[in-house]
Amino acid sequence: MKERIKRNLGYIVASFSALMLLGIGVASANGLSAINEDTGEDSRNEAKLDIDNQVDVRNDNRTDIDSILDIAANTGDNEANDNEGDGDVESGDIDLAVEIANLVGFNRQDCSGDCPSGDGMGGCPGDCSNNNHGKDFCCPFGGDIAAGNFDTGEDSRNEAKVYIDNDVKIRNDNRTDIRNDISACLNTGDNEANHNDGDGTVSTGNINVDASVNNVVNNTSASSIPGACCPFGGDIDATNEDTGEDSVNESKVDIDNDIDIRNDNRTDIRNDLSIRANTGDNEANHNDGDGTVITGDISATIDFTNKVMN
């Protein structure tokens, strides 16, 4: 019996098979059992239950972020020339504030958390069904596991065996590429106050730049797959009881758990910042009065934060 379950987190392929040979092999919501009971004299009895559980989970996450800003601001390139009186130029200030925040978080699966209690199917946490049988594959057997020989006959040979192979493979592949490109050309200069009969005065504005870039990539957020890593929540018992004279009785429960988790995270972050700021290149020449040039200040505060958690 094989079923496939599609989930939003990626994909899960779960398979279950049970083989029962001779005797009594039972797989139910209350657990698993391979039992030989009330066997006859000189009889040969074998009860065998062979379980193969496979869970394959893969998460592929890819995020590409490009933040490209091309900014130009100009209050300069003014002229006050050839006036009969004074020629005055006063350019305005430029205040530039840029804030970029890139927050990327990936959810990955693992085998953390508590295993369900052994109270049948009701002990399985959560609901992982996209069809009528989905929950069975997240927690196939919430009950007990038993192999036993009871009230066996004289000179009989009795074998009760349960073989369980649990194979869980989890692959989390996260890829993040972030590019922040900020280019700014800011000017309050290139002003003229020339050839005036009076004074020539140029006063340019200030340029203030405040840029903040914050990149946070979190690959550590994890959620457990309900029951996939511990699909059997009950007790395990192998018993020979009230066996017959000269009988050979073997009861065995063999469980093989193989859990393979691989996390592959790659993050590439590129921050490019280019700022050209000018308050100069001003002229106050050939005036009959005074020639005065006052250039503005330039200030810049740049903050880059890159935080990657794997």
TrEMBL record:
This is Uncharacterized protein. It comes from the Bacteria. The lineage of its organism: Bacteria, Bacteria division CPR2. Residues 1-29 form the signal peptide. Keywords: Signal.
